[in-house]
């Protein structure tokens, strides 16, 4: 059976794999956490959750609207609440927002209940993916490329604390990235069991 055709049983367990812990995607904006996380969940036959999406749904506002009306500290509080709630659910794939792994409380929650995967993409790949979008309020500055670079440099020391790192070269497709994440997860029998 090929990857895309894998069926899930009633417990959301994909043929070929059994996920024991929630996979938490971390890394910079534009790294592909949402896109690769969603495709990974489909491949594994487990639920997909995105913390940004959950925050938007609960607030009935977009992320830029939340930042504008309530400020970043409010957003960060909501982000921690949502991550704690989602990690209490059955194993799945949880894509976080790019700032989530900077907070010690979030890292603690993630290491207790899940396994963190850093999608590490070079700055220019990130830039090419975010430059035409206005959905990321932190990049609404006079020089968004310089802002992205500064964020990248400040955040790498935090992301490098993730349990696993997967390189995103800007050429590999989303499906190929899923293959790479699965290969990384396969090194962790406490996370992914081949059935
Ligand atoms: N491997 C990839 N190949 C092609 N496009 C990608 C890849 N990964 C992500 N993208 C695209 O890049 C953009 C940013 O990805 P997204 O998943 O939103 O990143 P993040 O959630 O990390 O900010 C989206 O348009 C997404 O479809
Ligand atoms: O890097 C960040 O601090 C942020 C990244 C965004 O998510 P993505 O990483 O999914 O774009 C979103 O949470 C918000 O705009 C803040
Ligand atoms: Mg995202």
UniProtKB/TrEMBL annotation:
Binding site for substrate: 52, 76, 98, 155
Cofactor: Mg(2+)
Any single GO CC term annotated in Swiss-Prot or TrEMBL for this entry: cytosol
Keyword Magnesium: yes
Residues bound to ATP: 30-35, 136
EC code: 2.7.1.71
Gene3D superfamilies: P-loop containing nucleotide triphosphate hydrolases
Endoplasmic reticulum is among the record's keywords: no
Cofactor binding note of this UniProt entry: Binds 1 Mg(2+) ion per subunit.
InterPro entries from the UniProt entry: P-loop_NTPase (IPR027417), Shikimate/glucono_kinase (IPR031322), Shikimate_kinase/TSH1 (IPR000623), Shikimate_kinase_CS (IPR023000)
Catalytic activity reported: shikimate + ATP = 3-phosphoshikimate + ADP + H(+)
GO molecular function, one term: ATP binding
Metabolic or biological pathway, per its Swiss-Prot or TrEMBL entry: Metabolic intermediate biosynthesis; chorismate biosynthesis; chorismate from D-erythrose 4-phosphate and phosphoenolpyruvate: step 5/7
Keywords: Amino-acid biosynthesis, Aromatic amino acid biosynthesis, ATP-binding, Cytoplasm, Kinase, Magnesium, Metal-binding, Nucleotide-binding, Transferase
Biological process terms in GO annotation: amino acid biosynthetic process; aromatic amino acid family biosynthetic process; chorismate biosynthetic process
Binding site for Mg(2+): 34
PANTHER family per record: SHIKIMATE KINASE (PTHR21087), SHIKIMATE KINASE 1, CHLOROPLASTIC (PTHR21087:SF16)
UniProt similarity note: Belongs to the shikimate kinase family.
Matching NCBIfam families: PRK13946.1
Role, per record: Catalyzes the specific phosphorylation of the 3-hydroxyl group of shikimic acid using ATP as a cosubstrate.
Subunit relationships: Monomer.
The protein, known as: Shikimate kinase
Naturally occurring in which organism (per UniProt): Jhaorihella thermophila
Gene that specifies this protein: aroK
């Amino acid at each position: 059976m090929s990857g895309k055709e894998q069926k899930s049983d009633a417990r959301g367990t994909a043929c070929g794999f059994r996920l024991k812990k929630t996979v938490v995607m971390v890394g910079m904006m534009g790294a592909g956490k949402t896109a690769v996380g969603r495709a990974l969940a489909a491949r594994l036959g487990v639920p997909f959750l995105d913390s940004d999406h959950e925050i938007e749904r609960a607030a009935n506002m977009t992320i830029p609207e939340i930042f504008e009306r309530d400020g970043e500290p409010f957003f960060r509080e909501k982000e921690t609440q949502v991550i704690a709630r989602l990690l209490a659910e059955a194993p799945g794939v949880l894509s976080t927002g790019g700032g989530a792994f900077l907070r010690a409380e979030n890292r603690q929650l993630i290491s207790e209940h899940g396994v963190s995967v850093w999608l590490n993409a070079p700055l220019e790949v990130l830039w090419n993916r975010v430059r035409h979008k206005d959905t990321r309020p932190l990049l609404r500055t006079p020089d968004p490329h310089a802002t992205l670079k500064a964020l990248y440099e400040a955040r790498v020391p935090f992301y490098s604390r993730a349990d696993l790192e997967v390189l995103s070269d800007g050429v590999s497709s989303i499906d190929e990235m899923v293959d790479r994440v699965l290969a990384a997860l396969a090194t962790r029998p406490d996370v992914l069991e081949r059935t």
